[in-house]
Amino acid sequence: MMVPELFKKWLPWRFLIRRVTGFYGFLDPVTLMARLRQFGKPSEVQEPIELLRAGLIFHARGLVNTRAIQYNLDWVWPFWVVKQFTPQDASFIPRGFSFSHINVTHRNWTAVGHPDLAAYPIIDPRGLVTPLFDAWSIDVWLMTKDNNLLLPSRQPSVVQTLDLSGELAVTTATEENSLSLVCTARVKMDTPAGPVMQMTARGSMQTDTGWLVVSIRPYNPEGIYFIDHIRYDDSRFVMNHTHEVHFGTVPEKVLFSTYDHGDVALDLDRPQSEDQAACPIGMATAAAFFPIGAKDATQIDIQVPLNQDTDVVSSNTGRPAAPASQMVSKTAALTIPDAGFQFLYDAAVRTLLLLSADEVVPGPYTYRRFWFRDACLMMNALLGLGLAKRCERLIQGFESRQKLSGYFQSQEGEWDSNGQVLWIAHRFAQCTGQGFSTSVFTSLMKGARWIVHKRRSKKDGKPHDGLLPAGFSAEHLGP
Predict the structure, then answer these.
(1) Is residue 16 included in any domain, yes or no?
(2) Domain count of the fold of the chain
(3) Taking Cα atoms as reference points, which of 41, 55, 57, 48 lies closest to residue 474?
(4) Single pTM value for the model
(5) Is 345 exposed, middle or buried (0-12, 13-18, 19+ CB in 10 A)?
(6) Which residues, 6+ apart, have CB-to-CB distance to 336 below 8 Å?
(7) Average pLDDT of 66-87?
(8) Which of 28-42, 283-297, 379-393, 415-429 has the lowest mean pLDDT?
(9) Integer Rg of the chain from CA
(10) Residue 246 counted as domain residue
(11) How far apart are CA 367 and CA 379, in angstroms?
């Protein structure tokens, strides 16, 4: 083990990187990073690796989007693509000089879930459902016998509502002429398959006959997600031999397509000829058809087991999950005549419960990462709601992120974390009158001593003597 480590240490990485990038005509990343550092004051940590990594992944997907989307605008794409790629639309983004194509205009998706489960299926503004974290999506359409399609992502408007009365649910209603489509997504906890994302789709036609079409899409609100293989058997789709989508009703037919043959939506009138598709490019699509009679309606149930998601963590330790409404009833209530502000308050309570099921995260998707600064501020709101037990569990978990030095680290170089932890611990003690276990108290004391030792102690008369050293901000990457 020692030889490889020494090899890594002494290998002239900077020289090799400069030679390789220079040979291929790329910018020298070493020189570029050195230039970037000059915009800030000297600091112990030069750049936030976590954020650079996240940014690289973000724009890597943007590069894939560049290749996949703009050459295939006849596909059915999500709402943000329709808006950003339509020159007449206010959200249009010129692409000529864009390094990558990313969603910068319609990032207002909504999560559903349960306060005991760190799983966050998201629904975009037109009802596209992404059940698992950063994966494929489910889109629902209507198709008449004359091959007319009702595609929610291409509709100028829909009616979308967030139901807070019981289980958190998002309903998207789309209408055009005599066609009506209503889809509702929620999370169900106590099912034979464990926690699932349950989607109910109801389609109706006043004059035509046709089909309600459920399609598996190789993208999500951020962009492309590769589906290399998809098959149908036993009333379910299976993507990449791993993820499953179950139907409560057997479809009349199922169709598949690959990138070479175009989107499955481009040829929906053909008969079924296969039960699977493999796409080496990773753009396999599929569609399941459920018949609708004239002046009739068809309703189907779709379930996606959430234990397929490797990022799912449950704070429910073997006990039956309490209804979400019961957990909400234990929080501080607000009753005011203004319906708009009442909704905002109630939605904020549900959001705080949802995003604190395991570690506190500031968002269900792009910001599904842990920062002490976000966590402590959100925990203060939880304390205000009367959720002291939840805060106590979260504070107890902070020790696992503490370094031997006493530094509470979520991102290296952001020195405010220790102060944030001590502040929320003090707030907890103030609000509850409780103390801490020996382990937690020892951890907090180590955190306090870290601040004392970290402060600048040079006696040179400079005005910032006694402050923490220069760090960086996540927003501008410089001290």
Answers:
(1) yes
(2) 3
(3) 48
(4) 0.89
(5) middle
(6) 342, 345
(7) 96
(8) 28-42
(9) 26
(10) yes
(11) 17
